[in-house]
Write the structure tokens for this entry.
Amino acid sequence: MTDFKRIVQQIKKEGRYRKRVALMSPQDVYIIINKRKLSNFSSNNYLNLANSSYLKKKLKSHINHYGIGSGASPLISGYSDAHLRLENRISKILNFPSTVVTNSGYLTNVGLLNAIAKKDIDVFQDKGNHNSIIESSRLSDVKLIRYLHLDYEDLEKKILSSSSKNKIIFADSVFSMTGEKSDLVQLSKLAYKYKCLLFVDDAHGFGVNRKDKRFFPSSLNGISRSKLKIDAYIGTFGKAIGTCGAFVCGSKELIDLLIQKSKPYIYSTSLPPALIETTHDSIDYIMTNKSLSKDLEDNIAYFRDLAKKNNVHINFSDSPIQTMHIGDPKKVMEIHKRALDSGIYIQPIRYPTVPVNKDLIRINITSDHSKKQIQSLIDFLKNMK
């Protein structure tokens, strides 16, 4: 029998023990934990829509029409006209032939490779990929080959050394622990050159990046589609969109295959139609309220400028995710606790979420953070020893 207690004790000894924190408030720029109001810099709620009064009203009206739950998996009776409309809407705004809405980003990635898995498929993954992408390979019959983080020369060498005729490149567009971005054009060139499929997980980019205001924000925005070869595009609703769930875009043939063979899709109860309709409302809201993306961009720039002026050593990105590399699990926990004492909630990230000795503080900027909140955060980081 496995000694569960001993395993947990070892995790504690290594400084890796994690605790859940129970919020006593909605997800917002301020949250309440243990009856204390804290400035929240930990959330993926990038456009601050999770507590939107507009979307809450919409959800209530949709509940009156659809009820609370879906009651079944999508291939039984859990697939509604709301799911169909949202899938068609996403296909249109992202310019893909077909889309399937799913329950979570993690299960989507697992189900995607599970549905197409064969032993003669080599899957090339960035070493910085999210755990869901890594485990999607490990839990299937494909061969996992990992290339150095954002090193496309290393990727090309590994592709050339592969004898498989079936190759897939699978990468995050925005890396969740650093905010760094993949070069989707370069990945597309390699996919074209070596006849690979390219799968892109845009969980932290969908709804965020808006270089071209004519189109919906995503990591594809601002890049000519003629330069991209993306065979599967994964997005989520639980971050910028403010609801929950995920989706995959691709060819009609790929999406049909996922509906037939993705076990997490087939055997899970569908997301509630009322929530699906609210997700549709959120997407429309983002499309029409272009100031949301502008406010987020302005806050990211303000944070970065203040950090530079105050000699705060941040690993800057142009995404909402900003990080401070510490390299010590106990030290990041100490910083986290000191931030709490200062009324600030920032997240300590430790192994196994990041590699050993790569522990960091992750700071997430949102569109609704005030300048005062950001200034207070910088003041804390500046005085941190």
